[in-house]
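Following up on my earlier thread - several people asked me to post the actual chain instead of describing it. Fair enough. Here it is, all 299 residues.
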Amino acid sequence: MRQADGRATRRGTGRAADGTRRKQVIALLGTGIMGAGMARNIAKAGLPLRVWNRSRAKAEALADVATVADTPAEAVAGADVVITMLFDADAVDSVVEDIQAVPDAVWLQMGTIGVDATLRLAESNDRYVDAPVLGTKQPAENGTLLVLASGSEALKAKAQPVFDAVGQRTVWVSDKPGDATRLKLVLNSWILALVAGTGQAITFAESLGLDPQLFLDGIAGAASDSAYAQLKGKATIAGDFTPAFTLEGAVKDAGLIAEAMDQVGIDPTVVTAIRSVLARASERGHGDADMSAIYHGFR
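Reply from S.P.:
Thanks for posting it. Predicted structure:
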């Protein structure tokens, strides 16, 4: 058997034929806004990497640091760790059969797909780690994501080198897949409320004939201030909606949050309203823009 750099390996030993410890081979499925930055940091950490994306051009942009595969099956064959960083549960379901064909690989599911899908997939694979990340394009590129992880203690040794490559911190939530996704949805509910509140305040100020910068100046340095509100607010006022995390992704996540809230008896009225405004902005042609383009849904 040969690893990515061509050296022969002793099957099952984790060592090359010359006795040196080989580096585990990583397969990353999904090289969009988040996955592309993660891929470069995995490669920078010295881990042999294969990548696949449904739109091949996005994977080809990583050809300088990774082997570009034509199919998911080609990417995962013989890999030690498989990462899925895909848009939603349907996209993950489309590659499950290929992942299951590599029974020894640890599967790091790092996209946000909701609690129900996470539990279903974890039940089908005992080497599954629920590991969504918190952060957007720049943290992904800088290797400063927050990794939320839950899964078997026995899988940590293989998972942690990847988490260290893509994130500045890993929070192991529990040994039960599903808990990391639950925490991710809690965190996302707060982020969406902040983004929606900022966009609404800017739209409201403009509609009252005020300079919206006065809103940001008014909260600056106060207990109600937020670096994130300032960042998104200034970009919104400037009309800069370059995607760090897409509005369409926020629509999807808001739906997952509402679903999870409903399942545990929490009133989802607020996040449902936010999803409605996000969806309106998407219908107006802003789905591929940054989620701060929710601004366009308030008018």
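Confidence is low (pLDDT under 50) at residues 1-13. That should answer part of your original question.
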